[in-house]
Write a structure and sequence with these properties.
The structure is a single chain. This protein has 142 residues and is α+β, with helices and mostly antiparallel strands. The protein folds into two domains: 6-93, ATP Synthase, domain 1, CATH 2.60.15.10; 97-140, Single alpha-helices involved in coiled-coils or other helix-helix interfaces. Helices cover 26% and strands 43% of the residues. α1 (100-114) runs antiparallel to α2 (119-140). The longest helix has 22 residues, at 119-140. The protein is elongated. The two termini are 31 Å apart.
């Protein structure tokens, strides 16, 4: 590790959700949770549904994310001294943006649908359930 901070950017197709200096970032990689600290080796990986967390200004911050890509580079960008973490997510939501009632309703609907789903529909409902559970958990952190 080289020390310093990471420059974190979380971007969707419609907006920049987070742009901050971070002491560390964790996110749901395709094969499990990954943790990135300043000076991490370059990396390009896919991201699945889950919770992205980062520490900045002595506080922990959380987002609900759904699928995408993460690129870690050693090159500092926009002020970060320990590298850059660029997250390109299909969906990224701050806790304050999450409608908990809607997430609970989506969770219940997915649980019901899973009882009779098969094949690709089962996979789709499983993803909807995982998304709803993540959104509820992230919203509770605010």
């Amino acid at each position: 590790m080289s020390g310093g901070t990471l420059r974190l950017k979380v971007i969707t197709s419609t907006r920049v959700v987070v742009e901050a200096d971070a002491d560390g970032v964790t996110f749901p990689g395709a094969l499990g949770e990954l943790g990135i600290l300043p000076g991490h080796a370059p990396l390009l990986t896919t991201m699945r549904i889950g919770e992205l967390a980062y520490r900045s200004g002595g506080r922990d911050h959380h987002l609900a994310v759904q699928n995408g890509f993460v690129e870690v580079s050693l090159a500092p960008a926009d002020g970060g001294t320990g590298g850059t973490v660029m997250v390109l997510a299909d969906v990224a939501e701050l806790p304050s943006e999450i409608d908990v009632d809607a997430a609970r309703a989506a969770k219940a609907a997915a649980e019901t649908a899973l009882k009779s789903a098969a094949g690709k529909e089962f996979d789709r409902q499983q993803s909807l359930l995982e998304s709803a559970i993540t959104r509820i958990a992230v919203a509770k952190r605010s």
